[in-house]
Structure formats: structure tokens, C-alpha cells
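Extended Data, panel c. Modelled sequence:
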Amino acid sequence: MSQQILLKRAYDEPSKSDGFRVLVDRLWPRGISKIKLHLDLWEKAVAPTTELRKWFDHDLAKWSEFRKRYHAELRHAATRRAIDATIAAAGKRRIITLVYGAKDTEHNEAVVLQGVFQRRLRH
């Protein structure tokens, strides 16, 4: 049974089809309660460092460089362990949904993480 990695904004309504829900932001999404978010896990260790997040500041001109720098951060052993621990925590659930707070659905850390999680699942 292979697992599927989905993405969802924290401000979108949770659903049962989300499977195992993991918040992948270092900061809690503004204006949303823990109850409303329906998380299984908050994994801050896989989020970009505060320095990288502030540098990027959702500036699309920096997207390519952000991805490179974030991939470099994701190669650290502690971060790889956090990704593996998240996959293990999901257990046999078919779907893992990476939850994020960014408004931009195409240029955020969860988009990068989705590919990283998919590669880890193949190995």
C-alpha cells in the first residue's frame, strides 16, 4: 500500500479524506484554533528556519533560490529523521496531508516538502 502526500491550506476546511494531517509551518497559522485545524501532528522541525522564511518573505523572485536553500536545510540529519518520524507516525494511513498557512498555494514550503516526502516514501 503506497501513501499519497497531499497539500492543504490551514484555512481550508479539514475533511476525513485528508488522512493524517501534519502542520509543516514553524509558526501557528493566525486566527485559527487548534480544535478547528484538526491536526494529528505539528512538525516544526521540517519547516524552513526562521532566517530562511524571513529572507524569502513569499517574494516570487526568490522562489528558485528559496527552494535550493530549503533543500539544503532538509538534508540535515535531524530534519531527515523528523520526516521519517512523520511518515512512521502516519502508520498505515494511505494519505498524509501537509498543512500550511501561506496564501500562495504554489510557492511555499509544503510544495517543496511534498516532493521530499514522496522521495522518502519510495526508498
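Residues 4-122 form one domain. This feature is highlighted in the accompanying rendering.
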